Amino acid sequence: MLLSLSLIWGGSFLFNAVALRGFPPLTVVTLRVITGAASLWLIILVMGYAIPRDLRVWRRFFVMGILNNAIPFTLIVWGQQYITSGLASILNATTPLFAVLAANLALPDEKLTVTRLVGVFVGLLGVVLIMGTGEFRMAGQHLWAEVAVLGASISYALASVWGRKFAQIPPMVTAAGQVTASSLIMAPLALWIDAPWRGPSAEASAWAAAACLGVLSTAFAYGLYFAILKRSGATNIMLVTLLVVPSAVLLGAVFLGESISASDIAGLLAIGAGLALIDGSILRPMVMGGRQS
Q1: Contact 161, 235 (CB under 8 A)
Q2: If DSSP codes are grouped into helix, strand and coil, which group holds residue 82?
Q3: Residue 244: pLDDT above 90?
Q4: What was the pLDDT predicted at 120?
Q5: Helix, strand or coil, per DSSP, at residue 61
Q6: Residue 37's pLDDT is what?
Q7: What CA–CA distance (Å, rounded) separates 24 from 77?
Q8: In degrees rounded to 5, what are phi and psi of residue 291?
């Protein structure tokens, strides 16, 4: 399930890049969440799930929609106007670093250990390698695009913690609720700020990319997301962001002609090392083997 989700979300960076050729950023996000919501409710009707009627549940859906859709989708799509889809996916791979810190503050069963703290610092070192000190001195649109994607990672991390509140709700219903809430938030903003009817007509490829974002990268993906979150916890679900990177980089190279620099690769390796320390599953067999010898 984790591998499938990583492949689907890796493709979302490609779909964003193609959709941006025909639509402004807020319109891309709005098309994604509206299409995703419609697809999810159709699935729910077919499967016969009950629709929540408790206003407290819907208030939680709105918070989840803001943290897991409206904010991160907008920041990533805006950032991809200035940076490649591969670089955006690498920066998005920092999400587990922030998820560990958020889980430590909010979840009593996911406390920060020394090893995880070291993993966070190693991962953040990878971010510094990617962004570089020269970027901070120039402070151009490229830098702000990278900062925006990092902001999206923080929002995703907070969403992973907030998502624990839906443990008793079927994953597909949770996904539909939060995407519906984000649709109600994003649609008025897109109409007001983007005024998409004033621009030129989008080509078929942009419409197809927007449809893929909604049906595949949102509806189907969030069904998997909440199912994994329910089984494995807030920190483990965020490990998918590292697995997203290879597919996003490969798709960007094949279909968009993008390339990744040596410093980007070094930063990704550092982020991966940090996540390995956070997860602990890679180091645990080595530690046990050392004790046996």
Answers
A1: no
A2: coil
A3: no
A4: 86
A5: helix
A6: 97
A7: 9
A8: -70, -35
* Percentage of residues of the chain with pLDDT beyond 70: 88
Contacts of 49 (CB under 8 A, 6+ apart): 170, 172, 173
Task: Please give the Cα distance from 244 to 80 (Å, whole number).
Answer: 16
- Please report the sign of the dihedral spanned by the C-alpha atoms of residue 21, residue 22, residue 27, residue 33: negative
User: Token digits for 291?
Assistant: 């004790």
Torsion on CA atoms 154, 191, 35, 58, rounded to nearest 10: 60
The Cα 136–Cα 124 span in angstroms is 15
- Answer for the pair 103, 161: CB distance below 8 angstroms, yes or no: yes
Instruction: Enter the pTM of the model.
Output: 0.86
Q: How far is CA 287 from CA 74, 112, 128, 270, 283, in A?
A: 42, 19, 29, 21, 6
Has residue 134 got a pLDDT over 60? no
Average of pLDDT values for 9-18?
95
What does the domain layout of the chain look like in residue ranges? Answer: 2-292
**DSSP string spanning 206-255?**
HHHHHHHHHIIIIIIHHHHHHHHHHHH-HHHHTTHHHHHHHHHHHHHHHH
Phi, psi of 223, deg, nearest 5: -60, -45
Q: How far apart are the first and last CA of the chain?
A: 36
